[in-house]
Structure formats: C-alpha cells, structure tokens
C-alpha cells in the first residue's frame, strides 16, 4: 500500500512537493490572487499503522510565521473529533508532523475545519425554526449566498458575523455555539436577549475563501476586513451587502469573530483611535470586556493587540468602521489556533469539541455577559 495525499475537496489545501515512501514534503498553497497562506487541510491515505513524516516546508513565508512555534496540528479519522498531534514540531521554517495513523484514511488540518457543507447544515437547522428568519444578503463572486439569520424581537440591533478570514474556522464553530445558545428556549438569558434585541447573524462572510481553502481572502484575493470603508461589487461584494443591510437596520452592538495564529489566548480588539469616539462607547466596551473576564476563565485582557493612538484607527476594518459609522459598541473576538495556554488542553487544544459545556466553548464568551 502506498501513501496518498489529497486535498481536492471542500476547504482542502496542500501541495505535495516530494514523496518518498511514508515521508513527504508539502507546501501550503497561496490564496488565489494573493500571497497569504497558512491554512492547510488534507487527507492521508494508505498509511494505517505506519509511521508517517510530513514536512510542510514553506512555513517561513506564511502569513504569520509566529503561529508555528508551540503549535500542534489536528487530525481526525471520522472528521468529527479532531485531536492534536503530539509529534508536531517547528524548526527552520519547516513544520514537521510525525505520527502513526490508526486507520487508512485520516484527515489533517490547521484547525478543526468548518466546511461549506457543514455551513449549509447549520443554515438548514436554524432557518427551519419558526422564530428564525432567513435572508440572502447577496451573492459572492463565486455565486454563493451571503446567508443571514435573524432572531429576536427587541429594539437593539445586534450584528454577529464571522469568517471574514475563511481559514479561521473556529469563528464558525463559535457561531454554531452562539446559535445553539440563542435558540435554547429553556435558557433564561437567551429569552431576555431575544426580548430585548434583534440578532442579525452572518455565520460565514467569506464562503468563497472557505470553499477554496483560503486563509485570509475571497475569490478575488481580497482581504475583506480591509474593505469596510469602501466595499465594491467587483472586489468585495460580501462586505458591500452586509454593510448595506447594517445601514438599513442600524447597529447597536457588533461582534466580528476571528482566530489568531500567534497569540495563545482569547481576547477582544476594540475601536480605539476612531475619529468620533465617545465616552459611552468606551465605557460599554470596557464593561463588556470586564464582565466577560469575570465569568469566563477562557477569556483574558492581558494579551492582545496594541491599541491605536487617538485618531489613528484603521477605518478599513469592520470593528472601527462600524463603531464610527453607527456610534455603536463594536468588537473583534479573537480565539487561538494553538490553545488557551492559561487553561490548556493537551488532547484537543482550543477546539470545537469543548472541554467546557456546549459545542462551541466561546459561545458563552459572548452571550452570557449580555445580562449585565
Ligand atoms: Zn481574522
């Protein structure tokens, strides 16, 4: 039996450079029309019970080289449970993955994948509920719908959107958890939220990049989170349609869900440095963040991004653009690819299978603190 490596499937990404028995040199493929790369997802077949050595040789030039030290790849034989591979190591720009698959078909990835097929399962599950509304906000360049689910009857318009960066699959796992929580009729917090707020939920802002196995861009190689000041139908229709829909409803609270390659922690990024920042916005953002830290050991505020100086915010990003445009409280939630090193899980790392309590650990990060 020979080793076979393939990635010609939904969200797949790898190129085989060289293969010698049960060892192979691999490269991650750049996003189409872009230089970004870091997401990988492929199948290893025909190696059950044999030690396999895989070298991803182009890691030094990836989007976030600091993402590789202390990182462990994930593997699954059923594509449901994704376990960290202990024999992952990084040196001199090469990520080496050494392991012995138990079965003849095993899938490896940068993080537990969230395929477009699973996305459609998610939309089907929630769009079928009588109290959940569905709308396509428009089509991507590849012709996929930008799906939006609406829940609740309240006056406050809350926008939750994820996966502007398609390789950050934890963002859509988070959405799965958030939707499960919000639609749980036995949950008193969810009931209050749906009474006071109308939730507009875009679980996947970048279906083309997701299906194509991109890290960071859409079908035209555009980073959607640098388009919010001037989205266009030619380059960034995904942003244009979502922003237009936001203009119609207004926005009181917005959360943009992401993953961070390098920082092994959960953290928020805010809107410091926007031109018209108000004390109210700053106070509410701080209140949210403090409450989150109080209720979730998986959240912290000591690690994160540098704050922009007054007037120096990058207004092409959604969080800053929305805070400025609507005077709202807006934030980016970042979750780790590696793990939360303050509360590590050697078996799964940060993962959708949740050492905590629901399918998406971070769902509680967001929704619980609304009650305060
Ligand atoms: Zn991101």
Automatic annotation (TrEMBL):
Protein name as catalogued: Carboxypeptidase family protein
Pfam families in alphabetical order: Pepdidase_M14_N, Peptidase_M14
Domain Peptidase M14: 112-372
Disordered: annotated segments: 350-372
Requisite cofactors: Zn(2+)
SUPFAM superfamilies: Zn-dependent exopeptidases
Record-stated family: Belongs to the peptidase M14 family.
Annotated catalytic residues: 334 (proton donor/acceptor)
């Amino acid at each position: 039996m020979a080793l076979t490596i393939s990635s010609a499937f939904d969200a797949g990404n790898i190129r085989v450079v060289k293969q010698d028995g049960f060892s192979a040199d691999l490269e991650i493929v750049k996003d189409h029309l872009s230089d970004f790369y870091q997401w990988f997802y492929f199948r290893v077949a025909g190696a059950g019970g044999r030690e396999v050595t895989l070298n991803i040789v182009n890691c030094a030039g990836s989007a976030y080289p600091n993402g590789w030290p202390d990182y462990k790849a994930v593997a699954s034989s059923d594509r449901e449970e994704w376990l960290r591979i202990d024999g992952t190591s990084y040196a001199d720009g090469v990520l080496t993955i050494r392991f012995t698959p138990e079965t003849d078909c095993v899938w490896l990835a940068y993080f537990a994948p969230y395929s477009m097929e699973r996305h459609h399962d998610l939309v089907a599950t929630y769009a079928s509920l009588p109290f959940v509304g569905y709308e396509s906000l428009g089509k991507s360049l590849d012709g996929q719908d930008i799906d939006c689910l609406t829940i609740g009857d309240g006056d406050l318009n809350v926008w939750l959107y994820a996966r502007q960066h398609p390789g950050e699959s934890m963002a859509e796992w988070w959405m799965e958890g958030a939707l499960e929580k919000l639609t749980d009729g036995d949950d008193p917090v969810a009931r209050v939220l749906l009474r006071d707020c109308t939730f507009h939920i875009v679980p996947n802002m970048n279906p083309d990049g997701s299906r194509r196995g991109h890290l960071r861009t859409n079908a035209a190689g555009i980073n959607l989170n640098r388009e919010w000041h001037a989205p266009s139908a030619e380059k960034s229709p995904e942003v244009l349609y979502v922003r237009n829909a936001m203009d119609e409803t207004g926005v009181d609270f917005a959360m943009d869900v992401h993953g961070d390659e390098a920082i092994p922690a959960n953290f928020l990024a805010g809107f410091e440095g926007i031109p018209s920042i108000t004390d109210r916005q700053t106070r509410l953002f701080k209140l949210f963040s403090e409450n989150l830290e109080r209720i979730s050991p998986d959240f912290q505020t000591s690690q994160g991004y540098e704050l922009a100086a007054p007037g120096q915010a990058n207004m092409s990003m959604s969080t800053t653009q929305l805070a400025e445009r609507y005077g709202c409280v807006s934030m980016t939630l970042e979750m780790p690819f590696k793990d939360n090193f303050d509360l590590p899980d050697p078996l799964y790392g940060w993962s959708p299978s949740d050492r905590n309590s629901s399918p998406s650990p971070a769902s509680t990060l967001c929704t619980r603190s609304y009650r305060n």
